[in-house]
Amino acid sequence: QVQLVESGGGLVQAGGSLRLSCTASGRTFSRYSMAWFRQAPGKERELVAAINWNGISTVYADSVRGRFTISRDNAKNTVYLQMNSLKPEDTAVYYCAAGLRFAGAYDYWGQGTQVTVSS
Fold first, then answer.
1. How far from 59 is each of 25, 64, 68, 108, CA to CA, in Å?
2. How far apart are CA 113 and CA 12, in angstroms?
3. How many whole angstroms separate alpha carbon 117 and alpha carbon 5?
C-alpha cells in the first residue's frame, strides 16, 4: 500500500511559478513510476507528466512541455512538478499517482491540490 500526499498548490498570477510536491509513505517508493495528472472543472482528467523509477525517462503533455518539469528524489520519497510560465488554462486540481509500469496504469492516488492561475 502506498499513500500519497500532495502539497504546494495555490493561487498565482499568469506567468508565475509553483512547485508541487508529492510525498509517499512506505519504503518501496523507488519501485514506482510516478505521474502528475490534472482535472479542470467540466473536463476529463489528463496526464500532465510522468517519470520512471530512476528519473531517467519522462513524458509530458504537449500543453506543458517546455514549461513544466517533473523530477523525483527517491531518498526523500518525493516527486516534484516545477511549473513555470503558468497560464490560466493550467488551473485545475493536480493529482499525484503511482504505478509499477512507466506511463501505464496507476494504482495509487493522492487527494489532489488546487492550482489556480489568475489572468
1. 24, 10, 11, 19
2. 14
3. 22
Task: Read off the pLDDT band of 103 (50, 70, 90).
Answer: confident
Q: What are the distances in angstroms from CA 25 to CA 39, 78, 91, 117? A: 24, 9, 27, 30
What the block records as the C-alpha cell of 26 is: 512506505
pLDDT in tens, 19-45: 999 999 977 899 999 999 999 999 999
Q: Give the span between the Cα atoms of 6 and 44, in whole angstroms.
A: 20
Between CA 106 and CA 41 the distance in angstroms is: 22
User: Can you tell me which residue has the cell 490560466?
Assistant: 88
